[in-house]
């Protein structure tokens, strides 16, 4: 089979998107080159180790869930912490928006009574 041409430099995102859309997954696999199996992907974001006390049951349950999901239990706990932080930020943002809307209503009401 003839080797397919590699992607070229594109003049726009639309041109690049069209180029990728015109190819099947089989073509893309055919274009790919073998990867050195010794390459390790590392999460470059710095992390700091902390100590947290959890019950044996929490750890065991987390390990089982992580195993079912095919990931490490510490990764799962980190995901849960990130989700909790995200939910907290969203709640705070919603509260600020609600407070801001109430303040604007109050301001409009006080202006209306002065007229």
Describe the structure in your own words.
With 115 residues, the chain is mainly α. The protein has a domain at 56-115. The protein is 63% helix and 0% strand. It contains four helices and no strands. Helix 3 (56-69) packs across helix 4. The longest helix is centred in the C-terminal third of the chain and has 42 residues, at 73-114.
Summarize the structure.
This protein has helices at residues 13-21, 25-31, 56-69, 73-114. It is mainly alpha-helical.
Shape: flat
Report mean pLDDT, rounded to a whole number. Answer: 83
What fraction, in percent, of the residue positions are helical? 55-70%
- Name the poorly predicted regions: none
The oligomeric state is single chain
**Helices and strands: which structural class?**
mainly alpha
N-to-C series of helices and strands: HHHH
Distance from N terminus to C terminus (CA atoms, Å) equals 82 Å
Descriptive tags:
single chain, about 120 residues, mainly alpha, 4 helices, about 65% helix, about 0% strand
